[in-house]
Amino acid sequence: MNLSADSSPITTGLLAYGMSGKLFHAPFLAAHPGFALRAVVERSQQRMAADYPAIISYSSTEELLADAAIELVVVNTPNDTHHDLARRALLAGKHVLVEKPVATTVAQWQELTALARQQGRQLLAYQNRRWDTDFGAVRRVVASGQLGRLIEVHLRFDRFRPLLHTKVFKEDGRPGSGLLFDLGPHLLDQVISLFGKPLSFEKTLASYRHGSQVPDFFNFHLRYPQGLNVWVTSSLLVAGAGPAFIVHGTQGSYQKGRTDPQEPQLLAGMSPTDPAYGREQPGQEGRLTLADPAGHNHALPPVADAAAPANYLGLFEAVVQAIRHGQPYPITDEELGWQLALLAAEPGSQLLS
Question: How far is CA 133 from CA 310, 317, 349, in A?
Fold first, then answer.
């Protein structure tokens, strides 16, 4: 990975230091030379200093936003707060990196993008699953053209969590709560990054856990040009998960499990600069099957990755390139608008306007 070594690192503040801040932001902001991790908002316990002794711990968002040294604010708070906190950060003259979902409605996102342009600041989405090892393998197979014309694609992200989450904001039905806004942005972003805007879609939501007020199952059937059908599915009641990615084309098929190791490695305390970081285990490459002209199937090794293993540092490098060098950010406002339109749509079949 080609990490920039900008002499003027982006001074950055985090709005929370829960699991997201501790695992998915702070280690990368600390490891990447393009950032200077300066401050965090911790309203009760000041825990971040145990890991980052030089950190400034503010007791409120207002204090952090008033810190003139901070250029970039990471909005990593509960889903229903993303729009308001991103808006406040932009009004304070900060660049913003906002976790998924970037908002809960298309109108909110349009308001934020207009405000970012008005303020002359970058508004960037944290869609880290584009940098998953398993999804990178799928992307390479699709791009190789080995499967011929694609006709059927399935993406799944399943868990077995029959009990309601202890964090009330995930379960009480407020905007952005439930499985749809938790894992839906990941899956839809991956599909959109591969195939763009669907022509039409059918959406199904359901709740099966006892006492659930939010969807714990969702499915999208996305229709694309040339007859391509894509299904995106997630459930909290899958005890024995199958392949996470299935791709069928006119010349072959590819199947792969959800094998990205980054989250468990981060939980174990591994640094994202460790040579083992992001590397899958042998045998996790997936199964590529191609048919020859005579109709015989042949199992082949998947397309090799000529670059380094997948690493969420790639997203943070894109942030540096966007803010410091004006380079296009790979996750576009238009793509995020399509994603939100799908998330916010009522169940049923319809066109994507």
Answer: 5, 17, 32
d(Cα 301, Cα 289) in Å, to the nearest integer?
Answer: 9
CB 75 within 8 A of CB 85: yes
Q: Where are the alpha helices (DSSP H) in the chain?
A: 19, 26-31, 61-65, 82-91, 106-119, 133-144, 179-195, 262-267, 313-325, 333-344
Domain 10-128+315-331 falls in which CATH fold? Rossmann fold (3.40.50)
For 293, the 3-state DSSP assignment is coil
Structure tokens at 142: 């699709």
Asked whether the predicted pLDDT for residue 301 surpasses 90, the reply is no
Q: What is the pLDDT of residues 207-218, one digit of tens each?
A: 999 999 999 999
pLDDT digits (tens, 9 = 90+) for 166-200: 888 889 889 999 999 999 999 999 999 999 999 99
Contact in structure between 336 and 102 (CB atoms under 8 Å): yes
pLDDT in tens, 30-59: 999 999 999 999 988 899 999 999 999 999
- Residue in 100, 130, 140, 127 with CA at minimum distance from that of residue 256: 140
Give the CATH superfamily of 130-308+336-351: Dihydrodipicolinate Reductase; domain 2 (3.30.360.10)
The end-to-end CA distance of the chain, in Å, is 37
Measured in whole angstroms, the distance separating CA 9 from the mean position of its chain's CA atoms is 24
> Where are the domains positioned within the chain?
10-128+315-331, 130-308+336-351
Tell me if residue 143 falls in helix, strand or coil: helix
